[in-house]
Amino acid sequence: MSRIGRLPIDLPSGVKIELVDHTITVTGPKGTLQQHISDSISVEQQDGKLLVTRQSDDAATRALHGLSRSLIANMVTGVTSGFTRSLQMTGTGYRAQVMGKNLVVQAGYSHAVEIAPPDHVTFSVEQVQGQRTAESRINVHGIDKAVVGDIASRIRSIRKPEPYLGKGIRFTGEVILRKAGKAGKAGGKKK
User: Fold this and answer.
1) Are residues 145 and 99 in the same domain?
2) Residue 171: beta bridge partners?
3) pLDDT tens per residue across span 159-175
4) Which residues is 88 bridged to in the sheet?
């Protein structure tokens, strides 16, 4: 039995579950999400909890068991409290701002990069004082965990952090391994 798949999913009050033709629909205070579930996985609602079970023991079904349970649990969390992914911008002149619904990022290019959010995704930007410079923190909020992660990775790909000075856009808490500069620069003039 899958260790993840056998765990029950708690249903908070205000969350409604519908299962029609192996498509599960989760409705909550923040919105509605849908996900197709494999034919070999069954979902039952008992005593305010969801139980995800599998019908056979072959390898493909076992793999889908834990995946299906995780997807449904993420949907329940998304429609109740939502997901947030944070990024930090470090660099001289690097800044971001929200204009309307869109995020406008200036990251050292000759033009600003504008990102339009999909449905149920919002952006917020705050200024954080770092050790030497002010940094912009970009927050991506949404109800679908996969979409929030995808948008955050697209923002990071605008200017990936470089290893010498650490400038660029990185996830909050991401560690960038720093490299030393040229060997001749630290030692002074060669003889």
Assistant:
1) yes
2) 87
3) 999 898 888 999 998 88
4) 137, 170
Digit-coded pLDDT (tens) for 112-130: 999 999 988 999 998 877 6
Give the total number of structural domains in the chain. Answer: 2
Q: Position of tokens 């009050």? A: 13
d(CA 36, CA 22): 6
**Beta strand spans in the chain (E):** 9-10, 16-20, 23-28, 31-36, 41-46, 49-54, 83-90, 95-99, 102-106, 113-115, 121-129, 134-142, 168-171
Instruction: Tell me the pTM.
Output: 0.83
Greatest pairwise CA separation for the chain in angstroms: 80
CATH code for the domain in which residue 153 is found: 3.90.930.12
